[in-house]
Amino acid sequence: MFKDVEHLIRLAAVMAIALVAFVVLRAAIVPHSFGQYGHYRGAAIAEIAARPIGFAGHDACEGCHSDVVDQKKQGKHVVVACEACHGALAKHADDPGSVTPAKLDTAVICARCHEADSAKPKWFPQVLTADHSGGLACDTCHQPHSPKIETQKIETKTKAEGKQ
Amino acid sequence: MEITRRHLLVLLPAAAVGWKFVLAGTPEDAPNYKLSEHWWGMLIDIPKCIGCGSCVRACAQENDVPEGYYRTWVERYHVTDYQLERPQVASPDGGKQGFPPNEIGGKNFFVPKLCNHCADSPCTQVCPVGATFLSPDGVVLVDKTYCLGCRYCIQACPYGCRFLNPKTNTAEKCTLCYHRITKGLTTACCEVCPTGARQLADLKNPKDPIHEFLRTHTVQVLKPQMATGAKVFYDGMDGSVR
What we know:
- The complex is a heterodimer.
- By secondary structure, chain A is mostly helical.
- Chain A has 10 helices and no strands.
- Chain B has one domain: Alpha-Beta Plaits (2-Layer Sandwich).
């Protein structure tokens, strides 16, 4: 019927090879998880989730520092997480022997939260730190983990410091 | 058996299909975490924010955010009388070191900001290569290995929540501490917030207190007119907040 049917077969063969090449290349180049959940690489989700944590979380400290936790429960700082003041300590919680937390400068850390500011809510205890502390470190008078002070205690403390 | 050309024509596609199955391997295995069981968002309780910047510092520490860039930041608003259209907004160093002392009249308050993890986000729609996306559990993420650094998404975000990381030259943004929430921890910013002004919310978890909160409070999202499906809810937000 067709005289030169061979031409058609050759053409079909060329197209078939092109198609195969496309399918093979696509399988090799497009990451296998692309399209798993949508138009993106599904494996990226697990990769992002695999990042190590820096903040151990409040529960992690409780096991070893129960004394501080109990002390904190006495005062209003009960709501303040350990790592809000001490910084990220997951490495310390994993290996307390080799990672020691840095000493804190109360003039900086306490002021960030308690420096008076009219934008702060009225219920939050605020002081003008320069006037209030008279240049002393906050933890001369306040115990950082339970900051409320009975007046008696500071009288003796300030006497010892040589201030009025 | 000798492989003829005809055999090859059949064998190659078969191999290609087979190879796809080999590559597919086992799907992602996150032990006790099921993507379909969560839908993440956040609650910001403005009357509780004291502007201490703990969240900004914690975020930078937890996520290695480069100096001078912010995945979350705190703004201090100053609004005089009826001038809702002209608030004065300050955010020195993103509020990272707290704010300088300030005792002035008028209306003053703090507004923490972060990615709103929009359900219909413009940022994911403009990505030409599928490098940024909304995960099945409702978090907008960036695939660093796929990002070209074209900055389309940075322009598209109505909230200014994205930036180009100068070291990697890829788009970067809040991941809602995806590496923490998938392990059952809260985000770094919520962990250190001293007053509970920021709270992680799982909108698919019926036991999450967010549902009771949303029922009983007047909440708002930022720029609702953009219809982005923002999932960061603000309680007690003033009309001057942009």
